[in-house]
Amino acid sequence: MRPITAFTILAFFCFVNSNSLQAQIIVDQGDMPSAGISYVRANASPLTDLDFEQTGEDQVWDYSSLESTGLTTTDCISITEAPFLYQFLFNNPLSPDYQASYAVAGEGIDFGFGFELEEFFQFNKVSTTAFSAVGFGATLNGIPVPAGTNPIDVIYSLPMTMNSNHVNYSEWNIEVPEAGAYTLKQDRSYSVDGYGTLILPDGEYEVLKLTMNIEAVDSIYINQFDFGFEIPRSSVEYHWIAKEEGLPVLQVNTLLGATTSIAYKTNEVPDNIAKSEEVVIKVFPNPSSDYLFVEGVELGVSYEIIDLQGRVIQEGRFNSNLDFIDLKAMTKGSYLLKVLPSTSSAISSIRFQKQ
User: Fold this and answer.
1) How far apart are CA 266 and CA 236, in angstroms?
2) Cα–Cα distance, 55 to 199 (Å, whole number)
3) Whole-angstrom Cα distance, residue 201 to residue 67?
4) What is the CATH architecture of 282-354?
5) CA 302 to each of CA 102, 185, 254, 285: distance values in angstroms, whole numbers, following the listed order
6) d(CA 296, CA 309)
7) Residue limits of CATH 2.60.40.3080 in the chain
8) Residue 274 DSSP label
9) Residue 99 and residue 92: Cα distance in Å, rounded?
10) Which residue, 3, 73, 75, 338, has most beta carbons within 10 Å?
11) What is the pTM for the complete model shown?
12) What does the alpha-carbon distance between residue 308 and residue 354 come to, in Å, rounded to a whole number?
């Protein structure tokens, strides 16, 4: 038998410890948001004593004590579903730099003095090298106005690893001759200063953590009053980004050192989707790409598949207590399978992901 030497013990110790450390992930194009997917995030009260500045290598961020105060759904819609006027700029193959991957509808902004941005859209582009906001569309005093960011607002430079850094300047300007003009000038910079395990109320994730500084100035000019004004903004954001999750699994925004918002990934279902009285069924695989197998249903029981906006997009009936549903025609995203009640069972529902 070979004798156990000090070198053997040291080599074994190094092997064990090197494998116990969390591997650092690389965030790339496939981890960014995609058209056709709705991302649900829980909001938490910003009045918390949790330390969100913790950073470094091989960290454990235990934020399992976060409590939801409500849900926010971000719908990444296909560019073809955005208002047709905006597609000339953001779905034009002759302008590839501004050809967006998807759009997100957001809330408008009322600046007062009769100057209001309504029906707001942000157009984002995902490529191998960047995740960017290429422009916006808004209705200004009833007139739809699209405008690209110039230079383009690069939110993340891709791929990202520990110690990645990024600095970007961008502007966005819209003008309506009889109303006025709005300009956003923004400096964005971040550094990826941590990686490790993030623990949230509904799960654990291997993440990169970045700290982002944003210096912005909103400029408004109102023709009716022949004057303008500026609104400077300075904020710091913390993003925890995991593989294949689209949006950050946790994002904390701060202003002047005070936390203003916390949003994290959750398995909660929005209120506009009927919640189950009792989950008595099983589905697999989950996530699924082509077929979703369902176990534990009764013969002849009906089902509905509901999207995160509460719309029924598919319905049918089970032929056995182990059946399957064809998902090939469905777009990627999160859905709720709702098994309708029979004479001997309550409503059952379970959430699943279509890849």
Assistant:
1) 23
2) 14
3) 8
4) Sandwich (2.60)
5) 34, 54, 48, 20
6) 27
7) 282-354
8) P
9) 6
10) 338
11) 0.72
12) 12
